[in-house]
Fold:
Amino acid sequence: MTAPPRRTLTPRHFTRFAAIDWSGAKGLRHPGIALAICESGPEAPVLVEPPRGVWSRTDILHWLHERAEDPLLVGFDFSFSAPFVERGAYLPGETDATDPRALWAYVDRHSTDADLGAASFLEARRGRHFYLGAADGVKAHFLHYRRCEAHFNANGGGKASTVYDAIGAAQVAKASFAGMRLLHHLDPAIPVWPFDPAPQHGPCVVEIYTTIAARAAGLRKGLSKVRDAAALDSALAAIGSAPHLPMPRYTDHATDAILTAAWLRANATRDDLWNPPAMTRTIARTEGWTFGVS
Structure:
């Protein structure tokens, strides 16, 4: 019998909300990383300036460690785990890891990339676990999904990707495995939901889809990227936020982070998001869940 969902006491203490648009790119500095933060109330989120001009993944790790006592809810847009339930393994035939923390440690131990990158981890396993191109075989054979992704796709949420597909503009593989390295080095300073219970004080890290925030703001499928001030203010207003402070440049990464931080603030006390009916105890323990998928 499948274990029923694990009930989580909805946290109501958060007063700060951050969204991080993440990157799995090679190198030491990543223009694709953006961090936005807001306080309780209506004021729009603001971008946090990176300490050395452009964020590194290690800078983000340090930023989080420095806030390990804050009432801060942080959302990352990468997959916190690989699929497990479908096949009973994350990387069948390679590792006997049965929980995400063991997977994070395994990925970190076998990745040689700078700045918590994981591209080499995927490239060394292409054709076996990961699809990086036609030479790897039939792409459909690699399309295994976490239960959250399958649930999201089946209920019209869009087309959530699998971490085994590492090619194309929509791929999340490189960012996700780089993110797993960050989570490994963050642990145990900050709880990671739902592998850890939602805390009743201090910070918490959750997985998010920026697409969910875009839909909540009224942006249509295929047109979810905001690239100018007027469009950003319109989207923010739709989720109850005041207009943003003007910025010198409007990038998808910056506007995604700002809009998603505002969405996170607006939805942080929803019981159904902390206790999604489709998230069983087994799923919560082995694969996790995306905050916002109910």
